[in-house]
Specification:
Elements: H1 8-34, H2 53-58, H3 67-95, H4 103-111, H5 118-131, H6 141-163, H7 168-175, H8 180-208, H9 212-215, H10 224-234, H11 239-279
Helix pairs in contact: 1-11, 3-6, 3-8, 3-10, 5-6, 6-8, 7-8, 8-11
């Protein structure tokens, strides 16, 4: 059988994809390589030895910056944002399955922050706190600013998931005598658990990496993105690259944990379904 010749469109798309991958992963790979410079290394090639020196230096007291503190704040803020995003999105998904007065207005108000520039939201929340006589802080004003970014994504995901949800599972549970809470706990949540994990992943990563909405709301103590930005103007050693490598590795770790959790949930569901089929 003769192979079909690939036309110019195929090679054009291939070249575009290769360039996309280079622009996406090239800087990360470069930073990762340079973070393994020797003790006498600098911010550019060529490499001057290979070592873990700058990773060890990262956790020592720095002349400028507070990596450990900013890292802890971003982790706590990301986890808090993740929990609230999952709970609020799930509750909203349940509520919006039935139309109620004002539901359309509430929906558009909830997702309106996606079209407003992030820097304006950050500035507005920071000014509001000062008008109220409150000091902006990473655990209050920044937390609220991050939710204006993560909640709309969580809502849109849960609305799409509930649109495909078969409500006959709920009806079957009610016919067997389950209460509303038992139906949610034992039927809806287990079925939607992979989607809830995805919403949680969105909430954590969007908060952990958020810069613009933290700029005027974090207060005295920086989150990690703000700390990294500050270090780019003060730090002139590969310790900055080591920081970038650690944060990138953490992001990939979170994604991997979410994917593994989803696979485990699906396999458990398949196993329970198989056992139920054999019992029947």
């Amino acid at each position: 059988m003769l192979q079909q010749r690939r036309g110019p469109a195929f090679w054009l798309l291939t070249a575009f994809f290769v360039l996309f991958v280079l622009f996406l992963y090239g800087p990360t790979i470069t930073i990762t390589i340079l973070s393994f410079q020797g003790p006498s290394g600098n911010l550019t090639f060529p490499m001057r030895g290979v070592s873990l020196y700058w990773f060890g230096n990262l956790f020592e007291k720095q002349m400028v910056g507070d990596f450990a503190g900013s890292f802890q704040r971003s982790i706590v803020l990301g986890l808090a944002t993740m929990v609230v995003t999952v709970l609020a999105s799930f509750a909203a998904g349940l509520a919006f399955r039935s139309r109620f007065r004002g539901s359309t207005v509430i929906f558009y108000l909830a997702i309106a922050s996606l079209i407003v520039p992030s820097i304006l939201i950050s500035l507005g929340i920071g000014l509001l706190f000062r008008v109220l006589g409150l000091d902006p802080a990473w655990y209050s004003s920044a937390f609220g600013a991050h939710l204006t970014w993560t909640l709309p994504f969580g809502l849109l995901i849960m609305f799409a998931v509930f649109n495909r949800f078969d409500r006959r599972f709920e009806e079957a549970a009610r016919d067997l005598g389950a209460t509303s809470w038992q139906t949610v706990r034992h039927v809806i949540v287990p079925i939607l658990l992979p989607s809830l994990i995805g919403v949680g992943l969105f909430g954590f990563t969007l908060s952990y990496d958020e810069f613009a909405r933290s700029l005027y709301t974090a207060g005295t103590f920086n989150t990690l993105p703000l700390e990294i930005y500050g270090m780019t103007t003060n730090v002139t050693t590969p310790v900055l690259y080591a920081l970038g490598t650690v944060t990138t590795g953490l992001s990939f770790l979170v994604i991997a944990l979410a994917l593994v959790s989803t696979v485990i949930v699906r396999r458990r569901r398949e196993r329970l379904g198989s056992d139920a089929g054999k019992a029947a």
